[in-house]
């Protein structure tokens, strides 16, 4: 998506070879018009697939996921991060381990919001090693719902997330795919999907 | 706002005399069309006031705040909840103490996103004792910005938040004002503002 790639080139900051800071328009200050265009792009790509719900993980995925849900005409589910060992019986929960950060959290969703009749599109801001996305997928499947795909704003193609999801037969649609951040230079991968 | 009041009557759960659960359409599962209408309502009410940014606190205020920012044509700022004692020099921070929950957290915003040229509208889902809203106001003022007002989805009028804000000369516009939840019955206050 050229609009997003241009924003990344003009307004993001490369912190090191692995970290891109997009605080100015996605994560901390949010550009609502960009989010609307992103939502419409995801909705166009994933239309006609019988999607019943969009899901995301709080909190930086909420803005693009809300706009996608609006464009698809379906509800949005916000999966919650909680301290480990939440054991409420009315929640599905799964542990998400971040190897890069060396930390883990419990991801939860209310049992009343996901059922076997649901076909769920997962939206998130970043795809790196796929820990968050695979956690979200586990939660959806605990509710016996099916996965329509994963929509990502910024994919770090030099990390393992996409391969992990593709091996699990999950389709990934990323609006911007970054091949390298080496030397502070943002290099996009040619779009193939 | 009749649409929101009807949703509250039909889809919320009164947990006790003080707590209303709106997990099905605001906090956990989100109704995007309702959020769009809410955003347009706030934008209509607060238009022509020179608002430069909408601000909210992660994460349940993000959806209505994004739609308000979109309708006003300005950026959204997501204030972050962090463990106490975050002392990064590039952040404004303030402590928010919740007397009801008996807990506190550090609310932060990047110094690069709020300046003396900003006139900020704060949007949040609930107004109870006003701890979150007054914390957000303190942060905005640390950046030498001014407050255009506070927009709230659901005000618990039997708690002190509105009075606290009004005493500080802050205008509050609440889309639904609940006078009482006693006995499991939702009673709305007559709208005066």
From TrEMBL, chains A, B:
Residues 32-157 form the Phosphoribosyltransferase domain. The keyword Transmembrane does not apply. Pathway: Purine metabolism; XMP biosynthesis via salvage pathway; XMP from xanthine: step 1/1. The keyword Glycosyltransferase applies. InterPro entries: PRTase-like, PRTase_dom, Pur/Pyrimidine_PRTase, Xanthine_PRibTrfase. SUPFAM superfamilies: PRTase-like. Gene3D superfamilies: 3.40.50.2020. One of its GO terms (biological process) is purine ribonucleoside salvage. CDD domains: PRTases_typeI. Keywords: Cytoplasm, Glycosyltransferase, Purine salvage, Transferase. It is found in: Cytoplasm. Belongs to the purine/pyrimidine phosphoribosyltransferase family. Xpt subfamily. NCBIfam families: PRK09219.1, XPRTase. Homodimer. This is Xanthine phosphoribosyltransferase. It comes from Lachnotalea glycerini.
């Amino acid at each position: 998506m050229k609009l997003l790639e241009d924003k990344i080139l003009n307004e993001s900051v490369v912190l090191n070879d692995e970290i891109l800071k997009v605080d100015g328009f996605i994560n901390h200050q949010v550009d609502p018009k960009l989010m609307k265009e992103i939502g419409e792009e995801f909705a166009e790509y994933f239309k006609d697939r019988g999607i019943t719900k969009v899901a995301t993980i709080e909190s930086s995925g909420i803005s693009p996921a809300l706009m996608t849900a609006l464009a698809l005409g379906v509800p949005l589910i916000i999966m919650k991060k909680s301290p480990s060992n939440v054991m409420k019986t009315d929640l599905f929960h799964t542990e998400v381990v971040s190897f890069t950060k060396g930390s883990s959290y419990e991801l939860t969703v209310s049992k009343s919001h996901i059922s076997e009749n649901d076909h769920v599109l997962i939206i998130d801001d970043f795809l790196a090693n796929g820990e968050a996305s695979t956690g979200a997928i586990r939660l959806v499947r605990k509710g016996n719902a099916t996965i329509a795909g994963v929509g990502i704003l910024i994919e770090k193609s030099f990390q393992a997330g996409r391969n992990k999801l593709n091996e699990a037969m999950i389709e990934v649609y990323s609006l911007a795919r970054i091949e390298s951040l080496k030397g502070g230079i943002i290099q996009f991968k040619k779009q193939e999907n």
